[in-house]
Amino acid sequence: MDFVTHYAWLIWLGLILIFLIIEMMTLEFTFLMIAIGSLGGLISGLFGLAWWAQIVIAAVLALLLLGLVKPALLRHLKKGADPALTLIDALIGMDATAIKDFKNNSGQVKLAVGETWTAKLEDGGKASVREGDLLKVVGIEGATAVVAPTGKGSK
Asked: How does the average pLDDT of the chain come out, rounded?
């Protein structure tokens, strides 16, 4: 126990370094908060507190930071995120035009962005779709667009 008491500052420095390295690999702020808690343990050790008190201070500080600071920090960082939809999310709700008649609940559509997709009807083929009919993309299943008639007829 004398070793731990005498070299606690070195143990804290090692833990802080390890936590910071892990944080640099994960980039999610969890290990940063734990490293700051460990810094509190190091500082309390420099003031002469017992090793068990250093651990308690480090744990309480880390838990407070994880519970209070990390969520606010993540909210603040996500505030300026790009609101533009990408990939499949950008296709949902997009207008499409049937480029040939649908047979057996499937056909091909040209999306508003100019891409041609294999498509199937959302309602299982109850609606009749002719070439030129306007449709709306309601989902994507693999490489197939799930579409629904807009009721606006053809272009």
From this structure: 91
